[in-house]
Amino acid sequence: MALISLQQVRLAFGGPELINGVTLRIGRGERVCLVGRNGAGKSTLIKIISGEITPDAGEVISAQGVRIASLAQEVPQDLSGTVFEVVSGGLGGVVELLSEYRFVSKRLTQGDDAGIIAELERIHHLIEFSGGWQIQQKVETVLSRLSLDPEAPVAELSGGYQRRVLLARALVNEPDLLLLDEPTNHLDIGSIGWLEEFLNEYRGSMLFTSHDRRFLQTLATRIIELDRGRITDWPGDYATYLARRQAELDAEVTHNVLFDKKLAQEEAWIRRGVKARRTRNEGRVRALKGMRRERLARREQAGSVTMRLNEAERSGKLVLEAKGVGHIYEGRPLIRDFSTLIMRGDKIGVIGPNGSGKTTLLRILLGAMEPHRGSVRRGANLEVAYFDQHRAQLIDDRSVMDNVGDGSEKVTVNGRARHIIGYLENFLFPPERARAPVKGLSGGERNRALLAKLFTKPSNVLVMDEPTNDLDTDTLELLEEMLMEYEGTVLLVSHDREFLNNVVTSTIVFEGDGRLTEYVGGYDDWLRQRGPAVPVRTEKAAKLEKPRTQQERPRTLTFKEKKDLEALPALIESLEAERDGLYDILADPDFYRQDGSRLPAAKARIEELEKEITMAYERWELLESIGVNSHNKLIVLS
Description:
With about 650 residues, this protein is an alpha/beta fold. Helices cover about 40% and strands about 20% of the residues. Among the domains are: about 240-295, no CATH class; about 320-540, Rossmann fold (3-Layer(aba) Sandwich); about 560-635, Orthogonal Bundle (Helix Hairpins).
């Protein structure tokens, strides 16, 4: 039975419908990820499900007694009180009694006062009568699981811990359905890993949005996509969704091209001379009118961001050299005796918990701050472009075009002058949005505006401090491509594990107590290199990596394994040929004019084939590695 159902839900805010006839069911135990472009309406849909927004039309049907809790994308600015008070705040009036009991108990520890004891006994009886002790135990259990101090003032916590407090507030109600809107936003890598593991063990249902591709690949059992107001449903994980979605998008493009060609032919026919009009087929005319209505109603796919860096002349071969750098903040060491050499073309990732000193390190390397110890030498001809995680370079009261163009109507990119409106359209700002003040932009739009401003500046050193927050996955992937093709040097602070894996050539990691270590490769490479007996979170389970220093004898392939190895290439070719054939069928517009019952079967078979192909490749790689290793006399694992 569905926990919640949406039936033909519609919602608009003055323009095209943001939610256009959405029908959706979420069952028990499902972990559903809602994906879509920035501005597609994902947060709005979550608010409709939570009851914060009433749709213009349609129904939202909840199962009897279902409990729903949500975690909003942004931490409220007015969050105050202790952790216990905030977490227990949604549990009713008894919470005030519990808070009063804790306050009076503290007073009692300061002296034995008969009046205080009497007051404490009175509150104790009221709590007992209202079942408050069970509520307190429930709150304390959740706080213990989330490693939160009940007496800590919430306003003094980091952004990551404030989100953890709000998650505890949602969980303490023991919801049947948990709604999470970008839960990884502004969390550091350690907190994201913790949240991923915690939610993987959560037994309730979840609907969540996330731009963190590894997070949603690990958690989601089903993907739903909100695109142009409509929902499409994709059973399976994120990787399966990507493959199947691309096939359907290709089929849609093919269908639209053929449809538009047919429409143009019919329009030419209807406009022929008098003789043609006298003999025209009225059924054909009605069909043409229907085609016109269909074409008018079509909502095109959202455009893609187009990014191009404004590259300056090449820097010198040496970009930065740090020797023995040390820095202290409020009496504690942020950086101890750190040295590094950064050369032209290096792409360096910086990893560390929130508050560890990542931004301070960037400022020291760039010369914006002097270290307390050591020195930094900077190379010749450096042109630095800096992406600030707080977006302080944007002035809220000015429009997007004024911010990006600094008041000018034109910008120059790689020697070519462009009108600011046309340039901003590459970053998905239509003219009316380009003229809007920055203070009214969403988080994703503010990030795109800052990227647009940044890329007008000629640079050969690009410094990006958390550029991935609030960006949709399409924009993330485009930014990845651009950074990989960039010929200059990149310094990148990010908590997005896939982004780091795909972009950087080495990582500088804050490992506690001011110690910084540099590793070759990205995030996964760091996990492999950082030492034995370190907890490593995999996509299937959490496990300890055990150091392997002993010499191990290789095993050889069995007779059956040898036969399997010989047969696997032909099997894979056969499976891929069947899959590609089904994709070709789905790309044919005629297929959709036939019996609609064939479509689910074709999609299901493609999903089966994708799994079989993946398993076959994994088997092939395993057997090949055993076969290769068996030719060696001895393997030394380190």
